[in-house]
Amino acid sequence: MGQVGVRNDPAPSRWSYRLQRMLLTPMYRRMLRFGVPFCLTFGVASWYLSDPAVQQSMTQTVHDLRQQIQTRPEFMVQELSIDGASPRTAEDIRESFGYTLPLSSFDMDLEALRAKIENIPAVASAAVRVRQGGVLEVRVHERQPVALLRVPKGLIVVDREGVALDAIAHRAERAKLLVLTGDGAQDAVPEALAIRAAAGPLAPRLRGLVRMGARRWDVVLDRNQRILLPVADPVRALERVIVLNEAQAMLERDIAVVDMRLADRPTLRMNEAASQQWWHARNTSAGAVPE
Description:
Layout: H1 14-23, H2 26-49, H3 52-70, E1 76-77, E2 79-83, H4 87-95, E3 103-104, H5 110-118, E4 123-131, E5 135-142, E6 147-151, E7 154-158, E8 164-168, E9 178-182, H6 189-198, E10 206-212, E11 216-221, E12 226-228, H7 234-248, E13 255-259, E14 267-270, H8 272-287
Parallel strand pairs: 2-5, 6-9, 9-10, 12-13
Antiparallel strand pairs: 1-3, 4-5, 6-7, 7-8, 10-11, 11-12, 13-14
């Protein structure tokens, strides 16, 4: 009996079938097209860049390129320009500048420089920018001196906020500024300026203001006269004294103190010589024998 021939099955095996199906999936095809080349490139690059000599060479190249860009003429600062500052303030700014020119603008911290300039007592605010031509421009808004503060060590120039700007040896150096003294005077400069503005006809005689108990002001006039102002509404109290003086020439007499601390009961105090004369005249009048 003859042997029956074995037929070959044309269908793929189970594993072959699964492999072919996997190769036909879009994700696997994208992985073969992009993922494998990327992984190979990344691996070769990582191996190449892991060499210390290559790393040093690349770092030096980047540094040289950066230096070439930063040191271009259009980025170099050649000059410092200061606007809006007095000669003394400008000198203080130059001393605190901290950079040696010429220098690349990339090597300057302009915000830190602005903050440093604003720390100078005489400077209220500042703006810093690099303008065309390699000029570093500093625009300054200075604090304005408005008064002199007398302290144990001398006289200090202050602005409206009581910020100390400078120290002077003699009042003649700032003769037009109001002199303030006393506890808390530095914290009440705006009120002192308002009192001075209201002084009107008494302004030529005004010698200064004394802060009493960090609460209120005494107005000091020439001839050792004082006006004691109240805590509340001192300007109005001073205006009332001015009206009384214009009507009765009160401050032209031998009066040492005008006490306005009680607004409804102003009190006058004569100086020592006038007081003694008054008491002498009263005693003489009381001891006289009527005819």
